Amino acid sequence: xxxxNAVLIDQNDRIKHYTNIKQLFYDICHYFFLxxxxxxxxxxxxxxxxxxxxxxxxxxxxxxTSAEKGTQKRNVERAExxxxxxxxxxxxxxxxxxxxxxxxxxxxxxxxxxxxxxxxARHRACSSGKGNTACPQEKDLxxxxxxxxxxxxxxxxxxxxxxxxxxxxxxxxxxxLTCNDVILEMTxxxxxxxxxxxxxxxxxxxxxxxxxxxxxxxxxxFIGVGDEMSALAHRAPYRGWIITSSDKGSRGEREDASxxxxxxxxxxxxxxxxxxxxxxxxxxxxxxxxxRICDDGLAELILTTGGTGFSRRxxxxxxxxxVAERFAPGIAEAMRAQSLGITKRAMLSRAVSVxxxxxxxxxxxxxxxxxxxxxxxxxxxxxxxxxILCGRDGECAR
Length: 398
Fold this sequence. Notes:
M1 Pyruvate Kinase, Domain 3, alpha+beta, 398 residues, 6-stranded mixed β-sheet
């Protein structure tokens, strides 16, 4: 068979002319096959973890150094950062993991506001004594009261960099910070305070041990006041925890067939298998376990199975609602709507979906078949919801 004026553009943008329709058909099939392979590879790359995401953008407000340890750091406006060493001329530079210390500007502002109230209270207590003597804290040169706030000079907490716009305390160890040519890698969050600084001795508190972070210099260069800094955080896989609620299962009288199905779907979707709990249908025990997993930061997603029916012992929705800080009803409603297309009995499900801290909790049915159908339906959209919940994305709109 022959055809006239048949033209096909290949993957290298070369024009091919055809007179044989069989060859044309063969090449079209070949290109569709290549396209399918490309899509599979792209999906594999998408599922591969870890990835990186922009966790924050900020501006340098102060660059502080001190020539000797134990002395106050002062803002020098601009400094040279040396790879595997730290800030040139700073006493804390050297071949160790805390070469550079960083503090978020908003944490300093919060301290100023909180410290002012404490200072005024102490001043009133001193002034109310015999002879109405002046409060000795007013003589402190490091911290004083002005315009309703506690005056803190840049570098007073021992920080090298004061940055506006990035909440360092919320970022994980391993976060990469870039500014101009300089690359820093976060190595530690907070530290133990061995000798209290002047701020602590005056105020009774210092934010550096709990709010400060430390980094090593990966690539050197210069950083100055007004420069922009970016934070690139490691997108580790989300952790999924499975809780099965079953009296018979907890007594060993029935095999838990749903949990393996849920685990298979989670792992295939790129989630980390964080843990599994098998509990009897006891509301107090369920609440305690949900709180433990959420509050200890053990998982970003908890999937319960079983205990959502009309039996008097089915208390999973009540336990889930009791620990909730916010509700996410759309997930449970979507599962019911999807299941109604399969069985009208889906309307009898009492499953709920809620948020506690940075963890999403979703109730799934106890049936392995129903658990699979529901989870397969919601799982593709849960990742975006977790990105919003965990601060990896800031937009819900497409």
